């Protein structure tokens, strides 16, 4: 096959692939009925006027889950996102569709969400005891306690800023008062109002009912890179220490240096080699995936010309793409685990 024919085949394939990965959204943005409730409107007005970029990122994440509803079934995503973030993402997706973009707005978030969902379930299934805990650090507007059946035997702890958790609770109460049906899928849910940048956050977690000796899955989705290097390492070290106490699984996403170093970036912490960093802290097993890998694709990235597939063909040491001179921005999805030796007795 000639190079011209091969290129034409790739372009035809990319066009077909894009049609398979588009979010199932309406041509014109329609405001969900829930967002017309007066109490909900006031809460989202407060979010827009008073929250900083880190807090608002929770609503942006919810918007992605809401508009990628053909692959993510989140009953609270529209409510948590609010009209502003939904409308903004809807506009970006429509623009991508008109331009036949190779990477659709929100696809990273969709893949990331699905990866965390599947790994949470796998981690819980790997434990040899029904007594399990799941800790969501920087939980934001996460609704897994209302949508993942795999949490039905787990005590879930959501850790975040007090105002974020209070607003989240108020939004849920508004939904319930409007006769929306809502059922918790987790065994229990405890909100822990604290800033994980503070040194006493773990003590507050324990005072809220967390038991260090029980098998635990720690979920750090979309949070590490907002922390300073010192703050992120303190969190990772603390979790790693739990491997000597009980079966511990860490699920986290890491940015590489080019991702955190873009102009006007709000990100700080990065790791080019988290699969080397985490074993040095005490985790015994580490598995790293990139967006587009077989376990981090979910049928949403068929286009062979998209950014993620192009990056997979380059060595991880590459900082600049040789074809166009752009930074090689990577997002690593990492699962790390550890357990005490089988013969070690645990003292309470």
TrEMBL record:
Keywords: Methyltransferase, Transferase. GO terms for biological process: methylation. One of its GO terms (molecular function) is methyltransferase activity. Pfam families: LCM. InterPro entries: Ppm1/Ppm2/Tcmp, SAM-dependent_MTases_sf, SAM_mthyl_Trfase_ML2640-like. Belongs to the UPF0677 family. This is Leucine carboxyl methyltransferase. It comes from Brassica carinata (Ethiopian mustard).
């Amino acid at each position: 096959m000639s190079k011209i024919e091969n290129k034409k085949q790739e372009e035809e394939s990319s066009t077909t692939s894009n049609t398979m990965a588009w979010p199932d959204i309406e041509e014109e943005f329609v405001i969900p009925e829930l967002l017309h409730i007066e109490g909900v409107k006031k809460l989202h007005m407060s979010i827009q006027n008073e929250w900083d970029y880190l807090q608002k990122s929770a609503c942006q994440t919810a918007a992605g889950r809401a508009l990628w509803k053909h692959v993510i079934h989140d009953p609270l995503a529209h409510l948590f996102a609010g009209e502003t973030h939904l409308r903004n993402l809807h506009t970006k997706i429509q623009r991508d569709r008109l331009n036949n973009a190779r990477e659709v707005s929100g696809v990273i978030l969709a893949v990331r969400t699905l990866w965390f969902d599947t790994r949470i379930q796998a981690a819980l299934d790997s434990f040899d005891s029904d007594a399990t805990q799941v800790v969501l650090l920087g939980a934001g507007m996460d609704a897994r306690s209302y949508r993942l059946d795999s949490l039905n035997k787990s005590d879930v702890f959501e850790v975040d800023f007090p105002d974020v958790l209070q607003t989240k609770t108020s939004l849920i109460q508004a939904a319930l008062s409007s006769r929306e049906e809502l059922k918790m899928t987790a065994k229990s849910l405890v909100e822990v109002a604290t800033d994980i940048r503070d040194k006493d956050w773990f003590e507050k977690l324990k005072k809220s009912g967390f038991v260090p000796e029980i098998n635990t899955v720690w979920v750090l989705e979309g949070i590490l890179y907002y922390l300073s290097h010192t703050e992120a390492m303190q969190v990772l070290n603390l979790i790693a220490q739990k491997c000597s106490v009980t079966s511990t699984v860490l699920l986290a996403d890491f940015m590489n240096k080019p991702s955190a170093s873009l102009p006007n970036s709000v990100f700080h912490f990065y790791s080019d080699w988290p699969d080397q960093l985490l074993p040095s802290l005490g985790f015994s097993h580490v598995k790293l995936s990139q967006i587009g890998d077989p376990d981090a694709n979910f049928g949403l990235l068929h286009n062979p010309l998209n950014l993620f597939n192009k990056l997979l063909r380059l060595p991880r040491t590459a900082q600049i793409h040789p074809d166009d001179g752009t930074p090689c921005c990577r997002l690593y999805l990492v699962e790390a685990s550890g357990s005490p030796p089988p013969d070690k007795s645990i003292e309470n």
